[in-house]
Amino acid sequence: MEERLEHQQLDSYLEPRLQRIERALREYLPATDKKPATLVEAMRYALLSGGKRLRPVLCIASAEACGAEMETVLPTACALEMIHAFSLTHDDLPALDNDTLRRGKPTCHVQFGEAVALLAGDALFAKAFEMIAQQSRLSPPGRVIQVLALVSHAVGTNGMVGGQVEDMHAESGAPTPDDLEYIHTHKTGSLIRASVLAGGALAGAEKESLVSLDNYGKFIGHAFQIIDDILNETGDPERLGKAVGSDRERQKATYPRLFGLEKSQETADNYITKAVNALQDFGSEADPLRWLAQYVSKRDH
Ligand code: GRG
Fold first, then answer.
1. Which residue range forms the structural domain that includes residue 275?
2. Total domains in the fold of the chain
3. Which CATH number do you get for residue 275?
4. Mean pLDDT of 266-272
5. Please, which of 103, 128, 235, 257 could form a disulfide with 82 given CB 3.0 to 4.6 Å?
6. For the purposes of burial, counting CB atoms within 10 Å of the CB of 269, is it exposed (0-12), middle (13-18) or buried (19 or more)?
7. What is the reported pTM?
8. In 10 A of CB 260, how many CB atoms?
């Protein structure tokens, strides 16, 4: 009963925000009627073909928990989704995962060719940092620089790219639990964590609140990838919009491979509890973050 209520509250919370994010993403990207039209088409395809928009939503929910309004963090929220779309586009390429289906549609390189998909990813990455720079129209420069520092750190050598490289090396090898934790917290967790922290930083949150948000982001980021691993084994391909079973085929380093499905779900649930506990000094203004944490552990796509 309580779970259903939370679900309804989350849906009502999400609806206007998702609409606003979609509109902003469309507006921030260039139109396709000018050069370089093919590149822009591929960028729009990669960015606007659905997706849960979790990272911008987390940025907004975190900013709101610290007293800021959605409109004041939109450029950064959208930048985080652009980085995410970039990482998916490159991750799907033949040189990496060689996936042909994403969000129920042909992947960007299947649709536009490998070279254009590669360059569309690059352009989305550059656009993301342009958007963060534009954030300075709405926020004090010190906060924008803080966001630049934490986002660039989260996606670089000691973040997403580092995690991706370790993930590749772990394929067909014998990853240890430590290797697995490194891969999950870096490849996926670091951008989720940065999304939460960026919202708080832009809202001008105090140090203690930022520490709480950082812990929340760290725990849900880790749980998110464990659930992703579980869904790759047990999910419905139609609901997921992509093939399942690919991790096992490629002998990827996953939680179910090392610990089994039951233990993996238990670990994800424990991280969700820790994430919610990290918000104990916040009041009802952080409820959407609490609902989002529950959503992460129960999601089916
Ligand atoms: C982006 C700096 C940078 C480098 C690229 C390719 C790569 C290095 C990193 C790959 C990272 C990656 C693809 C991690 C997987 C993360 C993950 C679980 C993606 C699925 O996210 P969802 O479920 O997807 O939020 P939707 O479709 O809902 O947006």
1. 2-298
2. 1
3. 1.10.600.10
4. 97
5. 128
6. middle
7. 0.97
8. 11
